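quick one before i forget lol
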Amino acid sequence: MLVKSKITKMACIYAFTNIIFLLLLLVQMNVAGTFSLDFCVEDRCLKYLYDRHQYFIELVIVINKFLAGFAAIFGVAYGYVAFLEQSKDRAFNNHLRNLEFFVSFIKSEIDRLDYLSQSSVDFNILYQLIYPNSSEGKMSNFDGYKSGVKELRDYVISYSNGYKGGLKKVPNSEVSFFNHKKKIIKLAKKFGIDVANLPKSDFFSVESDFFKLLDVITTTFTNEREVERARFLMHKVDIHYR
């Protein structure tokens, strides 16, 4: 709308300028006594008229060419600006629709879980982690999310290996669990998910739901091939510490 008003204003200025030049030409013709001559549209008459006012007419032609060129450049520039504005509007509208779908989907998945609630998830943080450039219409950059999942997965693998085969290589299991719980809570925060500080059995239940939710997100919203995606799935990890 703003671009259209600018173009309309430019067209009005162009037309007004030409009207002024026409009036000036008529005044000059009147002063020169041109209107006292008989009406004639033959070539010799037009040539006579042109010769009498040649410099003024040529000046008007030059100025008109300049204005026409400027108007053309102005129109192209504002057309490009309009295109960018429309592209941004479309991108932002797509962002809102995608966010709405994402939140609705995640809520429905959380409702399937037993120990994780909707109130424990900050959907905006989670969405921004998965789609950091969504407001610009870009839905293909999952590096931040994958990095967070990889960090979590690597930690769980490392911690679980300390309990592999039921050996409990960690000297003090209670201290180990406390540190593990603190680490999981911290890592979950990066996804906008609040994992409650609970006793061991309850905490592991919440942790399990947290991992399930991440797997649903990974398989639904990332564009990795299945073979590559397996490297980011939590259920592929052998957990020995529970």
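fyi Residues 54-112 form the longest helix (59 residues).
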